[in-house]
Here is the input.
Amino acid sequence: MEEILSITENIAKEAGKILLKYFYNEKDIKLKSISNLVTNADKLSEEKIIELINKNFPTHSILSEEKGDIKKESPYQWIIDPLDGTTNYAHNNPYFSVSIALKKENSIILGVVYDPIRDELFSAIKGKGAFLNGKRIRVSQVKEIRDSLLAFGLPYELTLNEKNFISFINLSRRSHGVRRIGSAALELAYVSCGRLDGYWCKKLNIWDFSAGVLLVEEGGGKVTDFDNNIVSLKESSIVASNSLIHDKLLEVLKLEST
Here is the structure.
């Protein structure tokens, strides 16, 4: 599995090179919806990742944000987001990432999140811990919401629904602050290494969170849905934390008023 991880890390870096090449240049930007963008860099990054996965693992299936499901007769499926944080990227905001995960049957067994701007490579193998540029990482030891720094995400189709901001207000008043970075994969990676103590988002796609969830869990944290159940490997709402504040985080998220 270590050899597969090494190959995956190299694939993520190759995709990152493409993203960096186009980052400060003029981009071909198209709208899926008013707040859901896709660029030429998304597609070129995706093409490179798929090319290299097919070269190294020709019998494996692939699920990608732009290309969809490439099915083969295999218990292994690669789940890729070639550019997580496209809106940031389109505006030259330097918070975006490449996310690649490997699923065997119904379990994520490997995950990589690469931030090409900072050359930060987060990686994990199930049961073997989480790492940042080869060094072991762990979640924070913050025990109370009042001492925490949190982040949240908003689904594209619900960004203007005021109910999505109730939790933001509730937790902003109870913590050191709530951030919105704009890349779910990075936000989960930041929980895994203690830069954030918790994160929540409704209705993420599997390519947004699959690698990040493994990073958090292997870093010693916890990830559930809003009802404290195991996260479904489909479209899902997720709550991630250092585990120490998880129950309290879920409790506040369920509040209807401030």
